[in-house]
Amino acid sequence: MEPTIQDIIRRARSQPVLAPARGALGLSVVTAVAMWASFAPLDIGPLAWICLVPLVCLIRIPKRTRWMYPMLTFGGFGFSLSALQWMRLGDASMYTAWFALAVYVSLYFPMFVVLARTAVQRYDVPITLAVPVLWVGLEFCRSHLMTGFPWYYLAHTQYRWIELIQISDITGAYGVSFLVAMSSACIGVWIPTGWLVRMKLYPPGATAQGNDKQPKIDRAVAGKASASKLDRRVIASVISATLVCAAVVYGIVRRNSTEFQVGPRIALIQANFPPSVKHDPASAFEILHRHDRLSMLSMKYSPDVIIWPETMFPWPMNEVDPNLTTAELDALMPANYASGKESWRKFWTDGEPQKRMYDDAIKYNAATIMGVLAQVITTDGVKSYNSSVFVKPQTGIAGRYDKRHRVPFGEYVPLKDEMPFLAGFTPFSADFGIAKGEGLSVFDYNGWRFASIICYEDTIPHLVRRIALSCERDEAKPKPVDVLVNQTNDAWFRGSAELDQHLITSVFRAVECRTPLVRAVNGGISSIVDGDGVIVEPEVMESLENRREAKATTFLDEHGGRRRELDAVLVHPVPLDPRSSLYVHWGDWFAMTCCLLTLAIAAGFFVSLRGTNTHRLASSVADA
Prior knowledge:
Layout: H1 5-14, H2 22-38, H3 53-60, H4 68-83, H5 94-106, H6 108-122, H7 127-142, H8 168-171, H9 174-188, H10 193-198, H11 216-222, H12 232-256, E1 261-270, H13 284-298, E2 305-307, E3 317-320, H14 326-331, H15 341-349, H16 352-364, E4 367-378, E5 381-392, E6 396-402, E7 442-445, E8 448-454, H17 461-472, E9 483-489, H18 497-513, E10 517-522, E11 527-529, E12 535-536, E13 540-543, H19 546-549, E14 568-576, H20 582-586, H21 589-623
Parallel strand pairs: 1-2, 2-4, 3-4, 8-9, 9-10
Antiparallel strand pairs: 1-14, 4-5, 5-6, 7-8, 10-11, 11-12, 13-14
Helix pairs in contact: 2-3, 2-4, 3-6, 3-9, 4-5, 4-6, 6-7, 6-21, 7-9, 7-21, 9-12, 17-18
């Protein structure tokens, strides 16, 4: 049936009148700019305490504005694109990955607001509780989904506030994010409704006093009288301030409860090679020579352990499965291998790289932990691993750790057999890829225990926590890890903010596990982080340039930044932390609780969405 004029007018009047999109756009951009400035390179940490206030305003309004969620996605994309711009420096092929990751991260902005509006307006959850719970729940999801991207947490902006971040040994870094997000919620509910009207967040004609559809959340936080006659906003603000104060007091007590013990004297080797030469055979001798010079330079400071960065030992360490026969080894020789079977066998069995590493440990009179590409041949073929090899000067190679968490498109191509075109998103050849490491390797030396974490593994809280817990529960040697050792190649990103953010993110692993962390990084920033999360100024920093022009004499430069893109050696005794960590034993109980509540709200949102669609369908049928 054709609709009548009256039907058309009635339907038009029944449509909700929405505020224009420009208010949501402006607030989204403000959040994006404030959040970006909170992280490196500007690193203005206090901005993080208010960066979510604009989003809280969008949660408060009774009806969404026009295009509100696309505007939130736009703001999120602006933040993530600018924060992740360092990805483009790795290789021209990384531009696609940069944009794809920026789009993925941007989706968390509208997701957060729609879930918070559901919690507040449908289930009457106080906004000062909904905001921190949902933000932390989504941070936890982001650390696991799509192989995990646990970067740019709100907590990471507070790494300088050492007392505050000590609660990470109970809640993980997520507890700090909770407090920061809660503060934005408390500030946001104090913004007068009239300001929201002037920001064009209400439909045309609405006023602060005369609007008969005042948001339910405004009534919830400002208008409901309780027995004590206290405004809910005051209560929420007092609770938030109390929690922050309690966290700081806990941090002060925790830091003063023990003294660090003098541990092994570590020499961190930081060379400065561009990543393009790492796989160039012509550069192998120069890479080895420069690392050898820096290691020799450290000898006068008598280090116990010398650590090279990720894959900076230039030749692969080949191993053959002992159960593999000579005939089986020959059968695995590629058809295009022209040098013959004798050369093939020698390539796999001569052990020259292992001998060189052992000779170096003897020469330096120190144990060494070297980053190397390990190739293992079995009946199933050849597998390559990004590995950390431990060498004792007394006995030779004493252990190897193979990286467990690989970087998509950087170390392997997911689904490349099903979708071969994905190989175009990596700077390497189509057949490139390293295998996933299995198990745990702990390096024991002179009574100290070292656990390696390679590259971005030091940014993943649940992985580092599992390593620390596995060491404590090791049936053979149930003893906590004394030192976490990170070997990284950040020269891919050429002195950008990635180097700072990588270091900042890793600081929280030391606090969470109450275990000092040392980082040897090609291109910088090599560092020692104690169990309180303090980035320690080393006793010695000597560079190859020092010997000519006396340039670098300290870990910090004249502007307060940390040295990068420099051939140098850092020497310092590791401050051992005797404290234990509840986070190591309890895990992500706090973040998982927030995540479960987030999933519950998400389920409620989809149920309500389905009900709304059903109602619209029924109305359409009735009209027909």
